[in-house]
Write a structure and sequence with these properties.
Layout lengths: L1 H11 L4 E7 L4 E4 L10 E10 L8 E7 L6 E7 L7 E6 L3 E9 L5 E9 L2 E6 L2 E7 L11 E3 L10 E10 L5 H10 L13 E5 L14 E2 L9 E4 L8 E7 L3
Antiparallel strand pairs: 1-12, 1-16, 2-11, 2-15, 3-8, 3-12, 4-5, 5-6, 6-7, 8-9, 9-10, 12-13, 14-15
Length: 249
């Protein structure tokens, strides 16, 4: 009977997660650099996200791992401005603009975003489907800077976003595996896909609903010790733990 109640409650809230909100003003989540995050050959970044505000005049970053000096320009993934406004852009900063998504992500609905690289082949996925690809041999550099979420820490580009299940692998997941991440929509699902190659898995459910996430630790469940820390910036009001706000529309 208890098991039946548990299963029913889970189905009623599928998928229903705790998450964290960045206010787009001065919030960032930072992960100290480690050797496991030296993703320069084959890799995958993936996350669930919901934009809460859209600033067409400002680029908004959600994967930033690079130094402003040479030999440290690894990766920057962000929502574009200008002619390709609100598309997903993948850059090796100040070296090359690698890839832009075909479609815009210009709404405040829930989306699953993933970017993969396998050798010279780069692919952007939106909601489980390929949304742009390119073959580009431009080499990435290994950054020793922090990995920043919700902000490009070098040239501040803050993002208004609710975010959950932020993960990275040191392998390019296949199109089928990316589709499984999207269709499954389950808490902890990254732990079940290429788990030996998983280098970062932040469920981002560590802060209770309504509490401030400034200075709080977000645990890395991959086993690599890449825990993250919330930084609410000067205002200390916008970075908040949320419960069950990311659900299918």
């Amino acid at each position: 009977m208890i098991i039946r109640i548990f299963i029913i409650s889970m189905l009623m809230c599928f998928p229903c997660w705790a998450d964290v909100e960045c206010d787009g003003t001065d919030d960032t989540i930072q992960i100290s650099d480690s050797s496991s995050l030296a993703l320069t050959s084959s890799w995958t970044y993936a996350l669930w996200m919901k934009r809460t505000a859209i600033d067409n005049a400002v680029a908004e970053s959600f994967v930033s791992h690079w130094n402003s000096t040479s030999a440290g320009r690894q990766i920057l993934i962000y929502f574009t401005t200008g002619g390709n406004v609100n598309k997903i852009q993948v850059d090796i900063p100040f070296i090359a603009n690698i890839l832009t998504s075909t479609n815009e992500v210009d709404d405040t609905s829930l989306h699953h975003i993933a970017v993969t690289k396998s050798g010279n082949d780069w692919v952007i996925y939106v909601d489980g489907a390929s949304d742009g690809s390119v073959t580009d041999a431009t080499a990435q550099e290994n950054s020793t800077a922090v990995l920043s979420i919700c902000n490009d820490i070098v040239t501040p580009q803050f993002t208004s976003i609710i975010i959950s299940e932020y993960s990275a692998w040191n392998i390019a997941l296949s199109a089928t595996e990316i589709s499984q991440l999207y269709i499954g929509g389950l808490r902890r699902l990254p732990l079940q896909i290429q788990s030996s190659k998983l280098v970062l898995d932040l469920s981002l459910d560590d802060v209770p609903d309504g509490q401030n996430a400034d200075g709080r630790t977000f645990r890395d469940l991959s086993g690599n010790g890449n825990d993250a820390t919330g930084d609410d910036g000067a205002n200390n009001t916008g970075m908040t733990g949320l419960a069950g706000r990311l659900t299918y529309q």
